[in-house]
Amino acid sequence: MNSKSPEYVGVLFLYPYESGYFCWIMKKQLTGLLVWMAACSFSYAQVHISKLIVKSNQKYLFDQTDIVVADTLILEDSATIVLNPLKRENFLHTKVLIVGKHCSIIGSGTHGKKGRTGRPGDSPIGPCKSGGNGTPGTRGLDGTAGINLFLYLDQVTMKESLKIDLHGGDGGEGGMGGEGGSGTSGTVHCNGGSGGFGGAGGNGGNGGEGGTLTIQCPAGLNAMLNKNLSLKIQGGRFGKGGRGGYPGAAGSGPPKRNGKLGVPGHEGTDGQLGKYGKFTIMQN
Asked: Does 225 reside within a domain?
């Protein structure tokens, strides 16, 4: 189930009157239209529903809003609410919350992408030439933060615990360094070429911060909510630094005149673990 806000179509009527009266009509209509559009945009930002029922095994998406007000919210067994990932803060107001089995609210951060692998060094053609160096891998992207959810409740009924997942996204791994190019064979006149250096591994991305859950409810619900909420608000895992590129092979030459093996690239540095989120219950 994906509830969307209604769409509106504005109509502007044009009249073939003389220019002065026409401009006056246009001004009046445009002013009214702008006021109407502002009112629509305000209502579009907040969804107000008398009774919201998320059917069993279905999802309700906060895709058109970050504020949902429901007088009664019913989550049937295995129902899921997916928060708006484009807004760091989401708000859910309900007077009566009824929760079935295996229900969840999801607002976790996204994982950072892995960094790109560096390009390998050139392996030239012709005798006695050294291989090119590999390029470094790029840094992994940071994981994004979990959503901050503000939940306002008056009455709650639960069959079992409600899972709320606001954990931060994992940092992406650093890209591997490019392999060094191979040196070519030597001759009686020159040594074998040396292998190219491996590129450095990219640094790992940082884990995203865990989101915060803030619940405002009557004092009598504190103990029940603390017991029946299953929270994931930890920060995202750090991205591992990328492996350094392999060294390029040495070119063979006459006795004691081989090229040198390339040097492997340095490993990238690991990112940082995301910070843990917070959970707060406030009394009405």
From this structure: yes
For the chain, what is the mean pLDDT? Answer: 87
45 in any annotated domain: no
First to last CA, the chain: 31
Angle 99-232-151 from CA coordinates, rounded to 5°: 50
Give the H/E segment covering residue 55.
none
Range list of β-strands (E), the chain: 46-54, 59-61, 67-75, 80-82, 89-99, 104-106, 148-158, 162-165, 213-217, 229-232, 279-283
Residue 126 lies in a domain: yes
Question: Looking at the predicted structure, is the pLDDT value of residue 50 above 90?
Answer: yes
Q: Is the pLDDT of residue 271 over 80?
A: yes
| Residue 98 CB burial class (10 angstroms; 0-12, 13-18, ≥19) | middle
Where does the pLDDT of residue 283 fall: very low under 50, low under 70, confident under 90, or very high at 90 and above?
confident
Nearest to 76 by CA among 49, 53, 50, 52: 53
Q: What is the DSSP letter of 255?
A: T
Asked whether the beta carbons of 183 and 194 are under 8 A apart, the reply is yes
pLDDT higher than 60, residue 243: yes
Residue 19 neighbours by CB distance under 10 Å: 7
pLDDT band for 37, please (50, 70, 90 cuts). Answer: very low
The pLDDT of residue 200 is above 60:
yes
From CA 253, how far away is CA 77, in angstroms rounded? 73
Residues 6 or more apart in contact with residue 255 via CB below 8 angstroms = none
Helix (H, G, I), strand (E, B) or coil at 74: strand
Stated pTM of the model: 0.78
Q: What is the span of the domain harbouring residue 164?
A: 107-283
In angstroms, rounded to a whole number, what is the distance separating the alpha carbons of residues 60 and 45?
A: 16
- Please report whether residue 226 resides in a domain: yes
